[in-house]
Design brief:
The chain is an alpha+beta fold. It contains 9 helices and 11 strands. It has 2 domains: 95 residues, Phosphorylase Kinase, domain 1; 215 residues, Alpha-Beta Complex (Aminoglycoside 3'-phosphotransferase, Chain: A, domain 2). Strands 1-2-3-5-4 form a 5-stranded antiparallel β-sheet, covered by helices on one side. Helix 3 packs across helix 7 and helix 5 packs across helix 9. The longest helix has 40 residues. The protein is elongated and about 100 Å long. The termini are far apart. GO terms for molecular function: kinase activity; protein-ribulosamine 3-kinase activity.
Length: 349
Amino acid sequence: MATDERDVEQKLDENLLAVLPEGGKVMSVTPSGMSDYCNTYRVEVAMPDGSSQVFFQKESAGETGWDLMEAAYKSEITAHEFIPEFLPRPITLGTYKSRPNVHFYLAEFAEMIDDDIPGPEGYMSGLIALHTRSMGKSPNGMFGFPINTRFGNMEQENGWKATWEEFWSEQMRRYLDKEEAGRGVPDAELARLRPLFFEKVIPRYLRPLETGGRSITPALVHGDAWPGNIKYRTDGETVCAFDTCIFWAHNEMDLGVIRNPRYPLGKPYLKEYWKHVPISEPEEDADSRNSLYLLRNQVLLAALYPQDHKLREIFVSNMRFLVDRVQAEEDAAKKVSQLADSLQTQARL
């Protein structure tokens, strides 16, 4: 058990000290500023041999706070099993003895460079490793996760499903419901597009992955691989990923955020990924699937920040693009069919 002999009014809780290194002395506890949804701290501990160890701590109160801490711990510890070199080591999940309504998550602290986005090779290396190492290791061969994780502070429902289309459709319905409930303002265009999105777009671009003799092997996905969650460590070479909200999914789902125009990533990062991971069949649908998975990220951002009306406009525009693309495909197929019928009629005359 560590000790906290600092001359401060509020020292670290006994249950937190119990999981810090034996014989260590707490030297400093400073806000880390890495989260909008809970308190976060950098905890430095001096060791008896003169060295020091640094830890990252999150805390949050109430039942919701426990859910946030549990989601962070179970998501990070599962991802760490597959990519330990890319993820700070999770240590424990607990509740304060002095404040039983406050819960904490503890991990090793990773010193990172805030403003430097890794290039394609470094940025994608963690995702490539996570996907390829975990593929085929879903505990029941299904899509989902044992608990609901969090995108920011938003619950991500991860109930197990046998097919990817079913899992992803249910998640998207819930996210769209949350976005509409949080904004509280109806949108006529969204009301028009939403049923077409579920009736036409999703079956068109996800169903072929699991029909016609094709199948998807579930892989763990990061779930929120935007540049704020993938950074260089202070050596400027080693990449660190964190704040995962993982579940077992189609690996390409993680690539949707890479396409988001709000981040300086895009095609070079996607090309780097495809050097190492085969494109799922049918390959000709890969671009449309990427736009479809981008929509998830856009809807989640709109739900997290309902005061930003532009975010809804962005995802509605992308939904319209996908609906129009499917409609154009159907119109083209109809014309081909009509032409074939006409040629057959002429041949009989």
